[in-house]
Amino acid sequence: MPALEDLEQRLGGLDGRRILARCDFNVPLRDTAAGRLEIADGLRIRAALPTLRWLVEQGAAVTACSHLGRPAGTVDERYSLAPVAELLAELAPGIALAENLRFSPGETSNDSAYVEALVNGRLGLLRGASSAGSAPFDGFVNDAFGASHRAHASIVGPPQRLPSAAGRLLHREAEVLGSLRTDAQRPFVAVLGGAKVSDKLGVVEALLSVVDTLVIGGGMCFTFLAALGHPIGDSLCEPDFIKTCERLLRSDANIVLPSDITALDAGGTVRQMGRSLPDGCRGLDIGPGSAAEFDDVIAAARTVFWNGPMGLFEDERFAAGTRAVAQSMADSRAFTVVGGGDSAAAVAQFGLAPYMDHISTGGGAGLELIEHGDLPGLAALRDSPQQ
Ligand code: 3PG
Ligand code: MG
To answer: Which atom from ligand 1 is nearest to the alpha carbon of 26?
Structure first.
């Protein structure tokens, strides 16, 4: 993929050049007491700063753009990037920010007229509008790793029309997550959690062919436990996927499932259970025995990739499993990679972020890169005409 320096060379320097920078500023927001929205976790904004600041240092006139949430192709103030504009103004002064790209239906449908509008600078600006104007851009930078699995207009369109480059974040993410597939040090352990097996079946299969051990917790473990014949009470389950889980469990793959579960019973009491849960009982976290077993597996690893919480960690009663996995990774000598919005947020919440080797800004993007070995956004940059 072309790097920032390649773009600089191609444009004969960046001083005064108008650069469109696609970032993934799709950050979690929360309501404040004052009835405003504020950023709950700014990881994705901070992670884009090295690229944005470098561009500004070279003298480029930078307009950043992003989507936020999933507005239905119309202007919807709840999904405004205004809270992001505020933080960005503090962290990287002098950068213009476009309003949510998904306010236009052309973004997700990858409409060519919308791509034309983008590269010609016809976008709604939140900040710096006067200096940025609406003239065509000279170059494009994709630093939106977290959105590069989407073949959307702002990801795959500009590289066909403008001199383009991968930003620092995109480069590093593609390198770290891409290399997990091909040259991870062994033992290589993947820890998967999150609610749904159906979302992760592709990556489960891909991971099974490259990891030494796959540890499964979170809501998705119950479909696997059901496949082993355990009653799972009222826990999350995807009956349509039990057969697939049975097949995966029958294969040679080394899959580790929880041996105990922290559950909420019908009377609202938190209970420590084994693998079998009676009716009315809902499993919401892995139990302490499982946390210790997962710790043994993680401690013996040389590479660990983790995506998806082990339980409902937003609720302190069901946070222990997720905290334990984060702690095991922090204590591990392995090269540790945390992928996914929820796992990254959990690691930050527990104060363990500094102990991880790589915290990815991509959830789905990281999983798809591991599964397919490529992403539409990366391919678009590689295919971007270089002359
Ligand atoms: C994400 O948060 O996963 C990315 O920003 C992509 O968002 P999307 O899943 O709505 O396309
Ligand atoms: Mg380490």
So the answer is: 5
